[in-house]
Amino acid sequence: MREIKTEAEFEQAIAAQMPVVVKFYTDWCPDCHRIDPFMPEVEEKYKEQVEMVAVNRDTLPELGQKLDVFGIPSFIAFREGKELVRFVSKLGKSREEIEQFLDRVVQVSDALNQA
To answer: Which residues touch 53 (CB under 8 Å, ≥6 apart)?
Structure first.
């Protein structure tokens, strides 16, 4: 998963035609580290439909505040610079929950393509 280091890089990433899912995390978050082992497989499974990038909330705190990201890990999907859907809560995330969220991202994006 590509790491986003600046707000400009973030804005460029989310402007893509393909949905971009941003994973917000921190180095000190145990729930963030719990999903790390399976995230490469999840990313591989969805690579044709969704691009995934990561933002360390401690590196870009203003971005997290602007997007109301308080719980971590959190996921927000964007397409063409606009937010599609989000999976934000203070609770830990399971692989199944993350994949359900990514399925929803794909559904919403497909519906926009047909509109």
So the answer is: 1, 2, 3, 4, 13, 20, 21, 22, 23
Which of the following is catalytic: 29, 52, 53, 60? 29
**CA distance linking residue 113 with residue 11, whole number of Å:** 21
42-87 pLDDT, tens digit each: 999 999 999 999 999 999 999 999 999 888 999 999 999 999 999 9
Find all residues with CB under 8 Å of 61, minimum gap 6, and list them.
none
pLDDT at 92: 81
32 classed as catalytic? yes
| 4/6 Cα distance (integer angstroms) | 6
Q: Which helix or strand (DSSP H or E) is residue 76 part of?
A: strand 74-79
Answer yes or no: are the C-beta atoms of 50 and 10 closer than 8 Å: no
Catalytic annotation on 83?
no
Of the residues 32, 55, 60, 105, only one is catalytic, namely 32
